Amino acid sequence: MKLLKTALFSATIMASSFGAYQAQAAEMSIALNQIIQGLNPQDSNYNVDYAVANGFYERLIAFDGDMKLKPQLATSWEGNDDATAFTLHLREGVKFQDGTDFNAAAVKFNIDRLADPSLNLKKHSLFKLVESVETPDEHTVVIKLSKPFGAMINTLAHPSVVMESPAAIEKYGKDIAKHPVGTGPFKFEEWVPGEKLVVVKNENYWDPEWPKLDKVTFFPVAENGTRVSMLMSDEVQFVPILPAELMKRVDGSDDYEVLEKPGISVWVMAMNMMREQFKDARVREAFNLAVDQKAFTQVVYGGHAIVPDAPLAPATQFHETQSPALSTDIAKAKELMKEAGYEDGFEVNLWARNNSTEVRMLQFLKQQLSQINVNVTIVPLEGATRAEKLFGASLTPETAEFDMVIGGWSPSTGDADWHLRPVYSTEGWIPNMYNEAFYSNPDVDKAIQDALETADPEKRAAAYATAQKQIWKDKPVVWLAVDNALAGRKKGITGAFPMPDGTMQYAHAAYEE
Question: Domain spanning 1-33+185-259+486-513: which superfamily?
């Protein structure tokens, strides 16, 4: 027992010393919930890549902690009335970390790359309407589109749309994903894939007030409990993805705190409308009535989520609350199933990823739907397998193997377009985008397109209101939850926090003096 007490005392001293060293040396370590895939956000679909990159890369337009637009490398912007041309005025006196000037030519270089289909960049789809990029002077850029696109400004704020050094791209080519050079407050120093990523202070950053830290180290730690243990022992000072079931460990400590923000990810169970039973609106309504969404938020998220009140999350631009609100009514659900000819139910499969959170979703939904005699076979899939089966090039609506699938969508532009269009438009059918229900309604398609053909916020709002109302009526999915963004942080640190879109911020992290 004496030996155990001595070991525990030594460990406590080491942890305290490490924390003191971190503050003195102005260093911070962060535990990520997954492995970094690459360091070129323009060619990535992963939030983890965007999250680590926002310290060494910057965007023309960024978001604050509530997903409101704010200037970054562009100080102001405007669009023409028909949303076909957008002018950005650039910050002066900025250099990339390799000494290359940040100017209109550098912006043109980056936007032209994103718009070039031959490069096969994963974020090309955001810029396929770009017709030309003009540079009337060194600090002005005009982006001209082939047709109206009212969501362009928010698209420029997507976390993948970073400004990369043209000189570095010329030097490294495709290997730029291993040698990032941006304008941010931190510079890339080292990446050991699967083990750690290190960034250090950019001494020549354009804002002399930042950064406050000398070094930030990222560790990928997939296991939830291990990440929390690392935080509680001061091995790391920030955990940007904190599972709800472990937050009490952090919240009950004198030295650590839980950060919570309303999220913009809406979780749904999509019903494959190629299946005969789901073509019937009464069945889709019955499924929504059979699921207790309030109980879902408790079982899956420990109450750290809300029941959706529209196809969009409340923090998404142009969200509009719908009526009637979601409710649970088993008797009415059974009545609708009987009217549709399915009083005795039917058998379906339900897909999700095999992580602990989504497995809980599968089990909960299986039980809920059994109340209306639906026999659900749950299919937990490894993430890469799920992605290939849903988004592989060979998939067609006729060959899709799933009956229902669980998924969450976060519109990282903060705008209604990048939720409604990929998830509910006909052009969004998988594998093109994320419409896993194969839902199609011409009125919805028209409303989404109408919103894109103007830069007038009032006209866009009216069009998106029409789209949301019709989607809510058609119920191509069972709406489940809008989960909050939860993170754990050592007390005394500011400026490191989770974002509603599932990424994080750390560029302005600092230890309180």
Answer: Periplasmic binding protein-like II (3.40.190.10)
Close Cβ partners of 258 (under 8 Å, ≥ 6 residues apart): 242, 247, 250, 251, 486, 487, 488
Cα distances (angstroms) measured from residue 223 to each of 253, 360, 361, 406, 427: 21, 16, 19, 22, 37
* Helix (H/G/I), strand (E/B), else coil: 317: strand
The pair of structure tokens assigned to 243 is 């599972």
Distance separating alpha carbons of residues 58 and 211, to the nearest angstrom: 14
Q: Is 493 helix (H, G, I), strand (E, B) or coil?
A: strand
DSSP string for residues in 111-154: HHHHH-GGG--TTGGGGTTEEEEEEEETTEEEEEESS--TTHHH
- The whole-angstrom separation of Cα 487 and Cα 382 is 25
CATH of domain 53-184: 3.90.76.10
Question: Any idea which architecture 266-483 has in CATH?
Answer: Roll (3.10)
Q: Which two tokens stand for residue 354?
A: 């095999």
Q: 100-124 burial by CB neighbour count: b if 16+ within 10 A, else e?
A: bebbbebbbbbbebbbeeeeebebb
Helix (H) or strand (E) holding 169: helix 166-172
Q: Where are the domains of the chain?
A: 1-33+185-259+486-513, 53-184, 266-483
Distance of alpha carbon 401 from alpha carbon 2, whole angstroms: 60
Q: Assign 310 to helix, strand or coil.
A: coil
Chain segment 175-214, per-residue pLDDT in tens? 999 999 999 999 999 999 999 999 999 999 999 999 999 9
Asked whether residue 10 carries a pLDDT value surpassing 80, the answer given is no
Query: Alpha-carbon distance 451 to 460, whole Å?
Result: 4
**Residues near 495 by Cβ (< 8 Å), separated by ≥ 6?**
212, 505, 506, 507, 508, 509, 510
Mean pLDDT of all residues in 241-247: 88
Q: Which long-range CB contacts under 8 A does 250-256 form with residues at least 24 apart?
A: 250/488, 254/491, 255/490, 255/491, 256/231, 256/232, 256/488, 256/489, 256/490, 256/491
Burial class (CB in 10 A: 0-12, 13-18, 19+), 21: exposed
- Please check the confidence at residue 314 and state whether its pLDDT lies above 80: yes
| pTM exceeding the 0.70 threshold for the entire prediction | yes
| Residue tagged 């309504």 (tokens) | 285
